[in-house]
Design goal:
The chain is of the alpha+beta class. 34% of the residues lie in helices and 33% in strands.
Length: 175
């Protein structure tokens, strides 16, 4: 294992933005319109966007290389308004879980998920939810291995087009 995972803070917003934009581009280049990807990343994966997530009570974990501490992945949880969420506030959303493709298959995604789930369980949430592009078979297989099941559908806009997303949920241990 040539990476480590640590809790991230607002000072890491730029590192989160860098990985967020890079992985979104890497995942959707050739699938979505290139101009729409760039515009989406400029808005949704900006330094300010991640500062806002963390400033609103979100929690993130950053994966970095052991040599040189380069950012190569992260997970981020926060308040949810996804279709299928419960109105009582007992759900939390996995807003992002991204790893550079070079690190796929190393266990990094599982470790980032573990941190998010542990955080949610320690705070008494009953479920963790996420939205994922319906056509992203690799991500959906990963989530299935992590015991997520589909609970709803939604539309996700990138540029001028809407895409089909699925909303997945995983039950958490309650004590």
């Amino acid at each position: 294992m040539d990476w480590t995972v640590r809790p991230a803070s607002a000072v890491d917003a730029e590192r989160l933005a860098l990985v967020g934009g890079a992985t979104f581009l890497e995942t959707f280049a050739g699938v979505l319109d290139g101009r729409a990807i760039v515009d989406h990343c400029r808005r949704e994966h900006s330094h300010a966007a991640y500062e806002a997530y963390l400033g609103a009570g979100g929690q993130a974990w950053l994966a970095e290389t052991c040599h040189g501490s380069a950012p190569v992945g992260f997970s981020l949880v926060g308040e949810t308004h996804l279709p299928g969420c419960t109105p009582d506030g007992s759900d939390i959303e996995l807003k992002r879980i991204y790893t550079l493709s070079r690190f796929h298959g190393t266990g990094m995604g599982a470790e980032l998920m573990k941190q998010a789930i542990l955080h949610a369980e320690q705070r008494g949430y009953r479920r963790i939810l996420l939205g994922v592009y319906a056509g992203n078979a690799r991500a959906r297989a990963f989530y299935a291995r992590q015991d997520f099941i589909q609970i709803a559908d939604r539309k996700f806009r990138v540029g001028e087009r809407e895409y089909d997303d699925v909303v997945l949920a995983r039950q958490l241990r309650t004590e």
